[in-house]
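Recall that a protein's primary structure is simply its ordered list of amino acids. Everything else, from secondary elements to tertiary packing, is in principle encoded there. The following example makes that idea concrete.
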Amino acid sequence: MKQLLVTSGAGIGRRPHYHIVYLDDETGNYLVSVAENHNHTMSLEGYVPPTEPIMAQDEMGNPILDEQGNPVEQEPGDPGNPGTWMIHPGEDGHLHEELLEYEPKTPKAKKESDADKVSDVLTLAEEAFTLEYESMKKGQESDDYYIGKHWNLTEKKEMEDKARAALTFNKIQKHVNELSGIQRDERSDITYTPIEGGDQRTADLLNIVTKVELSGCNFQMEESAVFMDEIIPGRGVFVPRISYDESLSGKLIVERFPWDQVHFGPHEKVDGSDAEYVVLDKPFSRAKLESLHPDKIDEIAEDYEYYTQLQGQPHEEPPGDVYETSTNRKTPIVLGGTKLVDVAKKNYRVLEVRRKAYTKVPIIVNNTEGFVFNALGWKSKDLAAVKSLSEDFFVINKTLTKIRITKIAGNVVLSDENPAKLPVDDLLVIPCYGNFRNGNFWGIVEGAKDPQKLVNKLLSLAVDIVNKMAAYGYFYDDNTFPDEAEREKFLQNCNSPGFAAKLTDVGRPPEKVEGTKFPDELVNLVNQATMVLEELMALQVDSSGANESAQHLLTRAQMRLRGARHFFDNLFWAKKKLGKLLIPLIKMYRQPADIARIVMNQGAKEAVQLGGQPLEDFSEADIMALFEAADVENYDVEVTENPFSPTARIAVAMLIEGLIQAGASIPPEVPIEVADIPDTLRRKILDSLAAQSQAQAETAQMTSDMEIGKSLVAKGIIPPKIAEQQGIPHMASMPPAQPGFQGDGSVPPMEGGIAG
């Protein structure tokens, strides 16, 4: 092992000092830094190299195996002795008696009062709320449009006052649901593939484990909910976490977080990886808050009293820069349109700020030795001493990122984890944007609002016109009918065929007048507005043909998305980041033995391979070792998606069917593998095909053996297997055949006589 140590202080005869020592136990190399114009020599005493165990062998030199198939040790190996490094005295005889671990200086944490912490949280929350205010406002309006709330109260009252219709013809919902249906049809699993010399076995192992874990938290349902947020308001959010509610050992949860309860700091990347902080605002009742934080009950009560007294009074924010840090600031009742404290309902909005904290860390590097060492807390003079070891040693300053999580309710600090105990230094809040530009986000609904309004107003106008117009009518005067009874009779029967009316003067019948024709221009406007809306929704739907080819099916599946493809791309990038975070999260609460159990259980349900080898070839220790070595951050594996959607399955199945019809030799299990059928049914069919194939192979082998046996018997040779079946000695145990006798001891028929 390569390491940096420090010597104990010098003995009598020299000023107090120590040396930095680099050791490589594997090669026996060492380096001692210069201090007080000298250094020391060292030697490794008592080192005995370890030896491998001697394995038992049979007479043929093959290894002897136990019942489990493991080699049997004849003589165990010697673990050896790592030895002890001795520091030789200096020229003047002074001595450093031992080598010690370096004790770095722990930096002192900055002391902050609760008022300071509240002020910091408010500063970040106000910035994030202000930055995303317009996007949040438009997103809520888009949500309303999806559910059919297209008229605001003012517009509706104005129409009612004019006795006009205010109807809603929700065409947006149809297109959104169709896009959501495409996503559900084309769901894809998070998949790991090896890169840069990564191990395929590790990738296969991670695929099995993550599939089981994500299935346990209903990830597909959460993914579709996030996608709906992405295309309607314009941003969905994944939040992975470890929950201890169901199990003390922990359970992985990947859930959709409400889009309007997340506010990011400034960032440019669609996966939010460059955001410095994120604010979550979660609603809690006062009772629940006190039950979750019993140590804060008195503070919550005092804070609630403050807001009770404040109720009904204007609560203005501090004058000046609203982002300025001030220890006298109080949490406002309303912030960025969000009510943080509701006295009437006894509710709080807990503000949770997750932010990145940076520390400069000196890293000692020796590329020649392949040595990297984190020297956090080392003194400057000791870092300089390291450089005196050799010219191959140098120090670089690396920025180390840690996550700080602070939660406040009103003016009460509920918790402040600095740094938070996380398996990976990430905010663990993953956005999935529909459209994102210059800090603003929006979904597919945003561009369709105006055409949808136009469709509603034009169709409402059409209904008004129809209600108020007449197709035709009659003019008559007081002398047209002889009496009132005849007039009423005419009005009741004028629309009936063959009606009769009594008139005062048949030369002056009621005059029929044709009404106004419904304007065709209005119909054209409605159709035009509908076409514009459908174009802006960026979807194209073509019905499939009766004899559609596989190529056309795949092409049509791509073309129908057209301008909506970026929604699926952004979902992929969000899942890609999620896939990188899953491994450290799973490692945080899953023991290697748990992973081995999960993989073994999966192997009992279906055929499982790791790197092309059947699972039976791996022991539990092998599986645990593979999982412990898995490191997504170091790029052993890459996160991608499995593109084998139902649409792709259908197209591939059609392609294979075409190849079979063309005479191609396709194994019978291949069409079943790609068929869009339940996995349990697929496994049953494949097992049945495998059993049939094995039975056919055994039958063919038996037939071949029988034919070979017949040929050998005809030549006077009895194979052992046939001899054993017939209960007679086989060829090797029989005396040599005599002339005139068959190999089975019978006498051949004589020519012209009777065999005897």
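The longest strand covers residues 347-366. The two ends are 89 Å apart (CA to CA).
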